[in-house]
UniProtKB/TrEMBL annotation:
One of its GO terms (molecular function) is oxidoreductase activity. The keyword Oxidoreductase applies. Its EC number is 1.-.-.-. PANTHER family: LUCIFERASE-LIKE MONOOXYGENASE (PTHR30137). To bacterial alkanal monooxygenase alpha and beta chains. Gene3D superfamilies: Luciferase-like domain. This is LLM class flavin-dependent oxidoreductase. The keyword Oxidoreductase applies. InterPro entries: Bact_Lucif_Oxidored, CmoO-like, Luciferase-like_dom, Luciferase-like_sf. Residues 17-296 form the Luciferase-like domain.
Length: 334
């Protein structure tokens, strides 16, 4: 059985927008966090693609990745993920091929099967395109072909992109992508930071059906973990009220801009909303370093994953940076 020192720690960034700041503040903080993560030794930092959400500023994922790559030196950066139904595979391959050509060896492409937005916005993104989630496997294969060596008779190539061999991951919150990742021999990341219900089943399905490939010789699984780590349990629970308010807003169709923490949630949510938020955050680790260390060890014992990819919605940016410092301290022996 592995311990925390044996697995990778990574970050999933959504560039959260605070209610008292503009989007520029969020984008600048995303860079600050990326540079901080690089110094701390995080394995990778990914950006999530969401659209028409006022509290998330990472919608133009490839563009923001270019900014982060230009202002860091070595940390691996990528998408967690590009929502493939919104994009033509060739365009994705060209965008990421361009970034990989400019910053070789530092880019990864995580691909998601859902649109990452509401149906109205989805139609605005597609503008008449008829692609559906059912086309996802074919689109993944097309992108893999664009990143591979050019084949005889290949009529369309990605320039830049062809021959870059950018690592491709599949992301999922159900069993579909787990099966596809296993069949294609790709690494798999489960979105347990917001949809933990099928985590164990998806990991088991992926591992049992994994077929070694030119991309990967054995299964590799990461899982999303929401975190709020502070010096004490009490401080962490106070800071976590910003997370609770944000998830409550998501579930009730309100603004997703980050709100400052409050002394407590009593009277701010209904009993059913509280249960829904708790289910959403079933994998969340909230507390002091020792409390969170115990929680992460329990998750590792239950799921034996290869990597944790952490999210954090702390309102105060200094406390948010501290969250990731304390997480990396937890990883150290002793």
């Amino acid at each position: 059985m592995r311990n925390l020192q044996d697995i990778n720690f990574s970050i999933l960034e959504l560039a959260p927008v605070r209610e008292d700041q503009d989007v520029n503040f969020s984008l600048q903080h995303a860079l600050e966090l990326t540079q901080h993560a690089e110094k701390l030794g995080y394995e990778r930092l990914w950006l999530a693609e969401h659209h028409n959400m006022d509290g998330i500023a990472s919608s133009a994922t490839a563009v923001l990745l270019g900014y982060l790559l230009a202002n860091t030196q070595k940390i691996r950066l990528g998408s967690g993920g590009i929502m493939l139904p919104n994009h033509a595979p060739l365009v994705v391959a060209e965008q990421f091929g361009t970034l990989e050509t400019l910053y070789p060896g530092r880019l990864e492409l995580g691909l998601g099967r859902a649109p990452g937005t509401d149906p109205v916005t989805m139609r605005a993104l597609r503008r008449g395109r008829q692609e559906t989630e059912d086309q996802f496997p074919q689109d993944v294969l097309e992108i893999l072909q664009y990143f591979g060596d050019r084949q005889p008779g290949q009529r369309i190539s990605a320039t830049p992109g062809q021959g870059t061999h950018i690592p491709v991951w599949l992301l999922g919150s159900s069993l579909f992508s787990a099966q596809l990742a296993a069949r294609l021999g790709l690494p798999y990341s489960f979105a347990s930071h917001f949809a933990p219900r099928m985590l164990g089943q998806a990991i088991q399905l992926y591992r049992e059906n994994f077929q070694p490939s030119e991309y990967l010789d054995k299964p590799y699984v990461s899982m999303g973990v929401p975190t709020v780590v502070a010096q004490t349990d009490e401080e962490a629970e106070y800071l976590a009220t910003s997370v609770y308010q944000r998830i409550q807003a998501l579930l009730t169709g309100q603004s997703l801009k980050l709100k400052p923490p409050v002394d407590g949630m009593d009277g701010r949510w209904t009993a059913s909303e509280k249960i829904a938020v708790q289910n959403f955050l079933a994998m969340a680790q909230i507390g002091s370093p020792e409390t969170v260390k115990q929680g992460l060890n329990k998750i590792l014992l239950n799921y034996d994953v290869d990597e944790f990819i952490f999210t954090c919605d702390i309102y105060d940016t200094d406390k948010r940076l501290e969250n990731f410092s304390l997480l990396m301290d937890i990883k150290q022996p002793g």
